[in-house]
């Protein structure tokens, strides 16, 4: 006779540790619950987009992310759990987390309100934590498909068959939802680009030796009506939809046009893709006239290019660096330290500025190995004629530690948040 799993043991696995019981191991108990209660609902989170973390960073990193995801699920659905409801995984080693709930047929709101509310709650919760959970493996752009389905007990079918069908229906719904979401984002981005509907803010970069503002970085902010809430959302959608060039062009143009009040004796750091060099409106006379129109000297402009884009094609980066250097424009390598090729990128590209990813700065005052890494990077920077900017400084302790290591420039919320440029002083 097959052994049966006690429902209490399943709940214990989901309420205590983060290890989840495979769906198939509790099929007998779940089948009985479906027969006894009458209706089953299943909400599925597809963690397949996170597989790359294990491939590139190892199983421990992947397990840490999945544990955070499981805790998030428990927090979202905790008050909905009752009786034999359980949080499971579809099978051992799977990327899927499933929430299985049972309700009587007499509950009319179960399918129309409860399951949709759980699904949207999970999506919203992941939006809030994805930056913290996914860093430093990814930016904040990964989305996890969520789907749900319900099944009424059918006495002429085995419970196992009904529950496996329910699981497959939820999978299909998650795939459909992902496709519809991609279409919504594509349409929203097309509308945004055509309307030029972005806001630019500027975050100061300080000279840590004098505590004066050395430069401002132009940062794009989409309007929330677009359904995209940060620059990562914008550029990920741009890459998915083939609108990356147009989006980059829009942000560069707005970043410059809104910098007319850039304070004297400061530089403007402007984010762009390496391929900007191939944009006719950002070359030669077109670029010169644009800079003249906002009264910005070429030597006061620094083009900031992410390491993530640069390591894919060092040749394009060097071409861009050399072309713009001939015009007097500087180049910065952004996100240094976020990728596996950081040191190679620094040595191959020899940018004017090296902007350290905030992961390297976080709690650096308590991390001697990272302090040694920054000392080494500073030594390399001096040899190749680069300056280092420490990004993501959020505490006074981080700021003091960075200064003590000889880093000249810093940026972060502790120093100043992004905002509109200061208004020029009145002539009166």
List the helices and strands and how they pair.
Blueprint: H1 7-15, E1 21-22, H2 27-37, E2 38-46, H3 51-57, H4 59-77, E3 86-89, E4 96-104, H5 109-134, E5 146-152, H6 159-195, E6 198-207, E7 212-222, H7 231-241, H8 244-257, E8 267-271, H9 284-293, E9 301-306, H10 307-310, H11 314-326, E10 330-336, H12 342-349, E11 353-356, H13 358-361, H14 368-384, E12 387-390, H15 396-404, E13 409-410
Parallel strand pairs: 1-3, 7-8, 8-9, 9-10, 10-11, 11-12, 12-13
Antiparallel strand pairs: 2-4, 2-5, 3-4, 6-7, 6-13
Helix pairs in contact: 2-6, 3-4, 4-5, 6-7, 7-8
Describe the structure.
- By secondary structure, the chain is α/β, with parallel strands linked by helices.
- The chain has two domains: 7-184, 2-Layer Sandwich (Alpha-Beta Plaits), CATH 3.30.70.270; 196-410, EAL domain (TIM Barrel, Alpha-Beta Barrel), CATH 3.20.20.
- It contains 15 helices and 13 strands.
- It has helices spanning 7-15, 27-37, 51-57, 59-77, 109-134, 159-195, 231-241, 244-257, 284-293, 307-310, 314-326, 342-349, 358-361, 368-384, 396-404; strands at 21-22, 38-46, 86-89, 96-104, 146-152, 198-207, 212-222, 267-271, 301-306, 330-336, 353-356, 387-390, 409-410.
- The strands form two sheets. It has an eight-stranded mixed β-barrel, surrounded by five helices.
- Helix 2 (27-37) crosses helix 6, helix 3 (51-57) packs antiparallel against helix 4 (59-77) and helix 7 packs antiparallel against helix 8 (244-257).
- The termini are far apart.
- Residues 1-16 have low confidence and may be disordered.
